[in-house]
Amino acid sequence: MARHTYDTGIIGNCAFLAHIHKNTNIEWLCWPRFDSTFIFGGLLDKKKGGEFSILPEGEYTSHQYYLENTNVLITEISPATGGMYRVTDFAPRFYQHQRYYKPLMLFRKIEAIEGSPRVKVKCEPVSEYGAVKLRVNRGSNHIQYLGGEENIRLTTNIPISYVFDEQPFVLNEIKYLALTYGEPLEAPLITTAERFLSETIQYWRTWIKHSSIATYFQPYVIRSGLALKIHQFEDTGAIIAASTTSLPESPGSGRNWDYRYCWLRDTYYVITALNHIGHFEEMERYFSYVTDISFSTDERYQPLYSITGKKDLVENVLTDLEGYLGNQPVRVGNQASEHIQNDIYGQVMISMLPLYTDHRFVFSERKDSVRWIEFLLKKIEFTIDEKDAGIWEFRNMANIHCYSNLFQWAGASAAEKMARTIDNQELIDKAVSLKDRAAAHIESCYDPIRKVYTNSAGSSNLDASTLQLIMMNYLDPTSQRAKDHLIALENELKASNGLFYRYLYKDDFGKPKTTFLICAFWYVEALASVGRIDDAQREFGNLLKYSNHLLLFSEDVDENDGSQWGNFPQAYSHVGLMNAAYRIAIKLDRPIFL
């Protein structure tokens, strides 16, 4: 069988994300928010998902790429009958009137490159996850789609009859399409589209120029940074795991989850990645989101929240949708929000540490320091001896997990450092005490015979999450114990070509059939940390081939054929790539001319 890849690119402006297929169709677009119903959902159902394509009659070939250092996507179509045309897709984003302009507006520019190709535009948005087909209202230069939460309008300089009747026409001049949600485009179409495109290109290129990205595999890190950026819902600062739902971890597995939410377990890794590339505005917005959740929550955190901090993420199955390549169920919402996951308190504590240790933040930004540190330390104390679902959110298993206690140890360490900054001895003593308790739980997971830390106390199972014992310096990376631990993990969990399984024991759905990509990037980091830099570089290079044609990475990879599976693109995977590249780059530390 051919390798399975996701043949789409993404565009976005930190208000919405859209997936555009190599065939020009908008395969996925949720409006008005990341977690709203899809307007186009062909990714999950070709018949009920609607369509927005710009295609020739008959056969064709396509070539898709990003305009360099931007989130502006180009799809070039070469019809078998001759000629060629280009579709430029973008979501407007730029600075205007002392704020970022990021409307619920998607632009498509169509221009002939060779000859006079004939094209057909088909635009059929839907609502309520395909259950509602919108009514169509024809205007003089636009088409309105009615019956959803808000009106959707398509404004164009293509003769409306051609779009309304899905009639092919000769592309003898540049055509524009502006799809809007709620407020229609009232400004002139052509000049507005060109200005928005120019300013959006300039915004993204400036954003990259203001990033601190080492030269080590720089194009991959740039693309990962651009992808991560548009996974942030700027209105609140939340960063979602992925913009899709129900793309299976492996075919027929039933592991089809809705990832359009913000996982607190990702906090440390996301903040670290943003810090590495020097983007503090995104970090501060994320700080604010986490702070708002923290002071509005009760005894414990949920593992994940909606992009507005909403707790109630009831998981429902949409039985009327066929699912991606027939894979069901299709889920909306995520039951993991109900789980107990105790690493997240440490994750949140560490995420606040830069406010105290990085002097690029000013003292006035450390608001309510004592209250904040006390608040999180109490949460760590409340949960430190408790069994939980662990990082992988087991639905019917609870243990004293090594990884959970590692982050409680790290969170208490961060609290100690913060308390020393504000010279509060009581908080220092509390943090040190909790560090010791967490360390005792971690040590209860050590197997002296195999010289490895297991996934949980009393278990013999190994878990890739314990690689973090090395990267977070719980284990001295230069120590023999760290090196032995790494060897034991790679002997059991490493797949071919550097891929890495999360674990290989049975969970609620049986044994995993695909590798989890971020674990492979963690493995690279661990190799670099213990000084195996040549191995780290080799394995990192091997992993890069698992991207799609646009350097975008999925959540999971099949070790047998390199197929991409799981929700896509996965912000977590891109964060893993960014952090692994940074770890190698600082280890190499050589002049750029060599």
UniProtKB/TrEMBL annotation:
Highest taxon, organism lineage: Bacteria
One Gene Ontology molecular-function label: hydrolase activity, hydrolyzing O-glycosyl compounds
Domain Trehalase-like N-terminal: 10-155
GO annotation terms (biological process): carbohydrate metabolic process
Domain GH15-like: 222-582
Keywords, sorted A to Z: Hydrolase
Pfam families hit by this protein: Glyco_hydro_15 (PF00723), TREH_N (PF19291)
InterPro entries, per the entry: 6-hairpin_glycosidase_sf, 6hp_glycosidase-like_sf, GH15-like, Trehalase-like_N
Name assigned to this protein: Glycoside hydrolase family 15 protein
